[in-house]
Amino acid sequence: MSMPAAADLPRHQMLIEGKWVDANGGEWFPTDNPFLGKPWAMIARGDNADVDRAIAAAAAAFRGPWRKMSASERGAILRRFGDLVAQNADRLGEIETRDNGKLITEMRGQLRYIPQWFYYFGGLADKIEGRVIPIDKPGVFNFTREEPIGVVAAITPWNSPLMLATWKLAPALAAGNTIVWKPSEFSSASALAFGELFEQAGFPPGVVNIVTGFGSEIGEALVTDPRVAKVAFTGGDATGEQVYGLAARGIKPVTLELGGKSANIVFDDADIPNAIRGVVSGIFAATGQTCIAGSRLLVQRSIHDQVVDGLLALARTAQMGDPLSDATQIGPVTTPGQYRKVLDYIDIARGEGASCVIGGAAATRPECGSGWFVEPTIFTDVKQSMRIAQEEVFGPVLAVIPFEDEEEAIGIANDTQFGLAAGVWTQSIRRALTASERLEAGTVWVNTYRAVSYMSPFGGYKRSGVGRENGMSAIRGYLQEKSVWIDLNGEAPNPFVMR
Ligand code: NDP
What we know:
Blueprint: E1 11-12, E2 14-16, E3 19-21, E4 28-33, E5 38-44, H1 48-63, H2 65-68, H3 71-87, H4 89-100, H5 104-113, H6 115-124, E6 132-133, E7 140-148, E8 151-155, H7 161-174, E9 178-182, H8 188-201, E10 208-210, H9 215-224, E11 228-234, H10 237-249, E12 254-257, E13 263-266, H11 272-283, E14 296-300, H12 304-317, H13 336-351, E15 355-358, E16 377-380, H14 387-390, E17 397-403, H15 406-414, E18 421-425, H16 429-438, E19 443-446, E20 465-466, H17 472-476, E21 479-487
Parallel strand pairs: 1-5, 8-9, 8-11, 9-10, 11-12, 13-14, 13-18, 14-17, 16-17, 18-19
Antiparallel strand pairs: 2-3, 4-5, 6-7, 7-21, 12-20, 15-16
Helix pairs in contact: 1-9, 3-6, 3-8, 4-5, 4-8, 6-7, 9-10, 11-12
The structure holds NADPH dihydro-nicotinamide-adenine-dinucleotide phosphate.
NADPH dihydro-nicotinamide-adenine-dinucleotide phosphate (NDP) is lined by residues 155-159, 182, 184-186, 214-216, 219-220, 223, 234-236, 239, 242-243, 257-259, 291, 338, 392, 394.
């Protein structure tokens, strides 16, 4: 296949201080269309000088126009931005699909939902209130102020690029912070298209800056710069650990949304057809490239074969192909590196003795063209000690583990370093409540899976993350509380003892 020359591809500049600019070094890098397996656009390759300019712009906007605006005005701008995203949702969704290969049905759906975050947090902007504390010391008035932190570095991955950025930008901006956003090198185009709407919505220049490039080149400068007050990151746990370490150098608060090895637990009293659909949605939707993928199926031994047969029947009908077609159910894997990683894990699982009952190879169906496709894959006879049961694959690969009773199911589910999500399939309210209490996971779904909302907190236990996104509590992550003491006594007490 002939590759388009880089010079013929559309070029996307960065957004710094409200201006569209080339990278300082004048360099560009290609971004690929995973379905076609070839580049479709060029992105500016930022360096540390670009990071410096973006942070300076964000710091100036924080001290200047954004800080001086009333919270109601800031909220109105966020809501206007939500309207603009709604008007452009289908166009933005299409850019995402071209860039990361995820289904248009999913990306369009996410884009149509994203405005709700800007409406919700825009509405919250002028409801951030301090408290008057009935302090125990006579003649003293004590109250608190909730203040923004400053410049927030938002670092986002490629799998749901605009949604995961929105989870950071909406509460951070509503709280009065300013942003330097570094999108994934694999999905910067939609971030830059989003960027065009900031000015239209009325954000003053510098409130949101977008620096594109490679995390390995500019990540450290962004996270460690002393003018950056907080880091909000979504991505792999290894990078998350690195970012946490860099942020620790400056004692900076972080929000980290990392990976998972989430268990979907199907009990023998479950509505089995419903559970099968839920398990499939947990692992094959988004080609398994989601932090909340239900990549482990724990199934009660008495219904093991029935559930596996049902999964096989549904997986066999899954339509693979062009992610821009509404009919496609499984699209390509986003990057060549991820494609090789998924195939490597399939080899590792076989080598460790798991049985591959479907898939287990690259997909070579004609409708997959030259894209990076992996067949939906299911392994049975999986043991807890196997890497396929412990490590995040980030692809359409399901590990099936049988259990005898509730005690064993919870034990297996919790026996992982991650704790992002879990699914429980049962008709018993007692089982549902007991399991949801005992599972070490930030989200537990009962008789459903992969549901998220701007209203409900999302985040990880254990190695799956730090802090919460979404819901009222998310905004707390972008505020700091100040206690103000006013003496009303008018007399100076003994200066040598604590007051
Ligand atoms: P990464 O964790 O590598 O990337 C996430 C973001 O961090 C990207 O913007 C990346 O930039 C940036 N980054 C990379 N290195 C640094 C650094 N040293 N300092 C600051 N920022 C940095 O995820 P990948 O996209 O490479 O995927 C790797 C694995 O992460 C996947 O295989 C999957 O297991 C997991 N993952 C989890 C996600 C989730 O939602 N929980 C989402 C995506 C991936 P750049 O893209 O330029 O490297």
